[in-house]
Design brief:
Helix content is 60%, strand content 7%. The chain is mainly alpha-helical.
């Protein structure tokens, strides 16, 4: 998972933010709390590499930029970017 995140250009704090949002989504929501995946690490890797939570976007030059959704999530989860 880390090699994919690095290839995209995500920093460790960005992956930490993805983890905080992913964990919150799958442990607190009634609908998502009951989800069962055979491989949670792969599910998280998919969330990171496919941008499920819309926390960042990649500019044409390859630079990764945090979205306003990402900034709000970072503030909510206490993640320093």
């Amino acid at each position: 998972m880390w090699d994919k995140a690095e290839a995209i250009g995500l920093t460790v704090p960005m992956v930490n933010l993805e983890w905080a949002v992913f964990k919150d989504k799958y442990t607190s929501g009634a609908k998502t709390k009951s989800k069962k995946y055979a491989d949670w690490l792969q599910t998280f890797a998919n969330a990171v590499t496919n941008g499920w939570h819309k926390l960042y976007y990649i500019q044409a030059d390859g630079q990764v930029i945090i979205t306003s959704t990402g900034r709000a999530a970072a503030k909510l989860h206490g993640v320093q970017l």
